Fold this sequence. Notes:
Residues 187-213 are annotated as: Disordered. It contains eight helices and seven strands, in the order E-E-E-H-E-H-H-E-H-E-H-H-E-H-H.
Amino acid sequence: LSSPPPPAQFRPSVSFDTFSNPSASDFSLTLNRKHRDYVYTKRSRTFLCGTDTNEYSDTALEWLIDELVDDGDEVVCLRVVEKDSKEAAKWAGGQGEKGYRREAQRFLEEIEKKNTEDRAISLVLEFSIGKVHDTIQQMIRIYEPAILVVGTRGRSLTGYQGLLSSGSVSKYCLQYSPVPVIVVRPGSSREKKKRKRLQDPSRSGYRDILDKS
Length: 213
């Protein structure tokens, strides 16, 4: 007899959904996937990460999962699309809420793949159609994250000047977020450092450092 397939790494669930509510001014869908070994403890932390379809957004999320997150932590990925934008229309594809749901599921699957070190974490996708700045503040109030992580396309300028491009989400977060903000720059050396770290047998995670302190 053939061996049964291995258990799924993450367990999916839908915890909140207003897409079917026609009276709602904005629409949101909350998807959650918990690692099979995830356990919430008093030391668990929550991180909020702004995400979109740009490469620098992927860089920020990968950096968060690789460098900050440890077993027992929760990563909340916020994806906001302006209601009347071309992107919203493209995702809906003439199918309304079905198009949004399909895109949200696809997006969460891509997020799950970034947990390359198989950490026992909880992944949450907040997929919203509405105002970007308002939704960021709302998610901060709901989740009370330890840190807000965002990406930036800026790489030619140095210091704050390279981060605070006019109208950017990173600029808004640095100016108005009530919680600490980390802005992650894109960098070609990140993958090289990640490979070197994975090959180091003596490397320690965040939790190991806490245990030794």
